[in-house]
Amino acid sequence: MKRKFKQFTEKLIEGLLLISGSLTSITVLLIVIFLFKEGLGLFTTSPMENKNVIVVNKLNPVEHLTAGQIKKIFDQEITNWKDLGGKNDTILLFTINDLSNYFSEEEIGENFEYLPEKLNSIVDSIPNLLAVYTDKYLVKELKGKIVKVDKNNIPDFILGREWFPTAEPAVQLGVLPLILGTLLVSIFAILFALPIGIATSIYMAEVANERVRKILKPIIELLAGIPSVVYGFFGLIVIVPLIHDTFNLPVGETALAGSIVLAIMALPTIITVSEDAIRNTPRSMKEASLALGANRWQTIHRVVLPYSMSGITAAAILGIGRAIGETMAVLMVTGNAAVMPHSLLQPVRTIPATIAAELGEAPQGGVHYQALFALGCILFILTLLINIWVEYVSSKQKFKK
Amino acid sequence: MNKIESKNVHLYYGDFHALKGISMSIQENTVTALIGPSGCGKSTYLRLFNRMNDLIDNVRIEGDILLDGRDIYKKNIGMRIDELRKKVGMVFQKPNPFPKTIFENVAYGLRVNGIDHRSFIEERVETSLRQAALWEEVKDKLKKSAFELSGGQQQRLCIARALAIEPSVLLMDEPASALDPISTSKIEELIYELKTKYTIIIVTHNMQQAGRVSDRTAFFYLGDLIEYDDTPVIFTNPKDIRTQSYVTGRFG
After folding, report:
1. Residues of A in contact with B96 (CB under 8 A)
2. What tens-digit pLDDT sequence spans chain A (401 residues)?
3. Do A295 and B99 touch (CB under 8 A)?
4. pLDDT, tens only, B123-166
5. Mean pLDDT score of chain B, rounded to an integer?
6. Disulfide-capable partner of A256 in A44, A344, B9, B82 (CB 3.0 to 4.6 Å)?
C-alpha cells in the first residue's frame, strides 16, 4: 500500500514537472510565433495609409510606384514623369485638398454625391495628373488608371533610410537608421564597459582581499537590480547636461549619452561573469606561474587572462545582449531621432526605444503596427544570434577544461 | 656541503600549529623523500622552500631556511623571492600546464624572467624537453596546445617547464599521484637521472616510490619531524616505533 502511494507520488511529481516544462516551452514558442506572424504580415500589405489609391490618366505609361517614389513626389524631389519611367511632362499633384481649385461646392454636391464623377472626369481630362484619394470615391467605370503601389518588402524595409511610419499618403518604413542606431549605442557601450568591467573583475578576483570583495560584490549585484528607468533618469539629469556642456552641443541627448548609461547598466553582467571565469582559473596553474619566478601581474596577464578568455568573451557578448535589448534608459537619453547616425554626438534612435515610444499610438493591425512588430522580429533575431554566439564561446571553454 | 638547511622552523595557519620546529639539512645532488600520513605537514614543509606558503592568508613562519647558505625569508639580507624561485623549481601534484602551446609552456619561465632571445629560448626548450624525456614525443607538435598531451606527458612537460630556468633544486609534490603506473615509472626513472644535476625533494604517499627513488627519507607526523635518515635505514631499521608502523603500513 505504502509502496503504491510512493509510486503514485513519484509519477505525480514527474507529471507536474513535465507539465510546467512543456507549458514554459509552449509559451515561449507562442510568443515567437505571434511576433513573427504580426511582423511578417507587414510584407503582404501596401504602404498606402487610409485606403488611399493613386489614379492617373489612362494614357500615362507608369504602372506602379514605390513608397519612396511617392514620398519624393510629395516632397517635390521628383517633379517629372520621366523620372518615373513615363513621358517628359511635369507631374501635376492632386489631392482632395486641391478640390476647390477645380470645382465649386455646387458642382460637388452638398454631400459630396457628385465627387466620384468629378474626380473621374479630372483624371480623364488632365494627362499629367497624379491624383490621390480614398477608394470610396472610385467609380465603377473608371476612366483613369489605378497605379499599383509596391508592397512593403524586406530589402526596402531593412535597407531603407527613412522612417516615417505615419507619413501620408504612403508610409516610409526604412529601419536601417534604427538598426545602426541600436548597434552604435550598444557597441560603444561595450567599448566603454569592457575595460572597466574586466579591470574590476580582475581586481575582485585576484587583487582584493576577502573583506573588500565581500563589500564590493553585493554593491555590484545591487547595480543590476536598479530599475532601468532610474538609470535613464540619472542619465537625463547628470550625463546629458554633462555632454551638452563638455562638447558644446545644441542637445545633450546623444548616442554617447545612451552608450554611457548602457555601459553602466552592462557592468554588473560583465563583472559577474568575467569574475567567475577568472576565479575558475585553477589555483595550481597560478602557483605554477609564480613558482617559475613570474610576479603577480605577469601571472594575471600571461596565465589567468588567457585561461579565462572565453569566459570574458562570453561576458562581453552577454553585455552586448543586455545593451541591445535595453529600452527605457535609452529612450530617455538618446534623443530618438530616426536618422542615419554619423557620429556619437548626435541623437539616435534604437529599435526597442522605437517600439516602446510608438506602439501606443499605432492603430492595431495597421501598417505602422505591423512594422513595429517586424522591428521586434529584427531585435529577436539579433539577440538570438548573440545567444548562439555565447553558447558557442562557452562550449569552447568547456572543451578546454 | 648542505644545499638546504632549515633550523627550528615553525609554521602556523592562524591558530593551527602546522610545523613544530623542523630542523634538517639536505645535501646537494640527492633525492630526499618526505613521507607521512595526510595532513602531517610534509607538503607545507616542501612549499616553504620556494615560499609558496606566502600566498595563503594568515600564515606565520618562524625559524630560518637557508639555500646555499643564504636565508630565503629575511627580507633585507636574504635572497629576493624572484631569485629564489629561479633557483628552486616546482612540480605539482596534478599536471598543470598553461593554456598555451607546448613550446610556450616550457619557454614561460624564461620569458617571465625577461629573456627574449629566440634561438636561446629554442635551444633551452629542446634541452629541457630532452631532460624530461619528452622531446621525442612532442618535437613535431611543439605548436600544439599542451592540453592535447596525455596526463603523463603533461606532467613531464611540467618538469621540463621547471627545468627550463635551470634551477638547482627541484621540489616535487606527489608528482606521480595522478598518473597511471607506466607514466609513474617514467617519472621515477626521470628523477633518478635528474639527481646528477639537481637537488630533489619529493613528497610522496607511495612507500615503494620513496624506497626506489630517494637517498634520504624524512618521516613527518602531526607537524613533527619524527625521523630523518638514509632511506634504507628508514625502511629496514627505523629507530622510532611510529616510523616503523607507518612504513610497514600499520597506519597511514
Report:
1. 282, 284-285, 287-288
2. 788 888 999 999 999 999 999 999 999 999 999 999 989 988 888 888 777 888 888 888 888 888 888 888 888 888 888 888 888 888 888 888 888 888 888 888 877 888 888 888 888 888 888 888 888 888 877 888 888 888 888 888 999 888 988 887 788 899 999 999 999 999 999 999 999 999 999 999 998 888 999 999 999 989 888 999 999 999 999 999 999 999 999 988 999 999 999 999 999 999 999 999 999 999 889 999 999 999 899 999 999 998 998 889 889 888 888 888 888 999 999 988 888 988 899 999 999 999 999 999 888 888 899 999 999 999 999 989 988 988 888 777 554 54
3. no
4. 999 999 998 889 999 999 999 999 999 999 999 999 999 999 99
5. 91
6. A344
Report the residue from B82, B94, B98 with minimal CB separation from A293.
B82
Nearest-5° angle of CA A120, CA A125, CA A131?
A: 55
On whether any CB of chain A is under 8 Å from the CB of B96, the answer is yes
Cα of B86 to nearest chain A Cα, Å: 6
Q: Residue A318 has which C-alpha cell?
A: 552577454
- Do the chains contact at A293 and B109, CB–CB below 8 Å? yes
Q: Please check whether residue B204 lies inside any domain of the structure.
A: yes
Neighbour tally for B186: CB within 10 Å:
19
- Residue B134 covered by a domain: yes
A290/B52 Cβ within 8 A:
yes
What domains does chain A contain, in order, with CATH numbers? 52-151 (3.40.190.10), 176-400 (1.10.3720.10)
**How many other β-carbons are positioned within 10 Å of the β-carbon of residue A256?**
27
Q: How far is CA A62 from CA A47, A48, A71, B17, B169, in A?
A: 18, 17, 16, 97, 92
Q: What is the ipTM of this complex?
A: 0.89
| CB within 8 Å of chain A, chain B residues 34-73 | 50, 52, 55, 57
DSSP assignment of A87-123 equals -S-B-EEEEGGGGGGT--HHHH-TTSTTHHHHHHHHH
The single residue listed with the C-alpha cell 553558447 is A391
Which residues in chain B are contacts of A396 at CB distance < 8 A?
A: none
Q: In CATH, what number is assigned to the domain containing residue B204?
A: 3.40.50.300
Q: Which residues contact residue A301 at a Cβ distance below 8 angstroms, ignoring those fewer than 6 apart?
A: none
Residue A250, SS3? coil
Q: How many domains does the structure of chain B reveal? A: 1
The minimal CB distance from B165 to the residues A287, A293, A303 is found for: A293
Domain that holds residue B198: 2-247
Q: In what side-by-side order are the strands of the sheet with A129-134?
A: A64-65, A145-149, A52-56, A129-134, A92-95
Instruction: Count Cβ–Cβ pairs < 8 Å, chain A vs chain B.
Output: 68
Mapped onto helix, strand or coil, the DSSP state of residue B63 is strand
Question: Under a CB-based contact definition with an 8 Å cutoff, are residues A271 and A312 in contact?
Answer: no
B57, B108, B147 member nearest A292 (Cβ):
B108
Instruction: Give a yes or no: residue B229 inside a domain.
Output: yes
Structural domain includes residue B252: no
Closest partner residue to B85 (CB to CB) among A210, A291, A400 is: A291
| Residue numbers in A near B109 (CB within 8 A) | 292-294
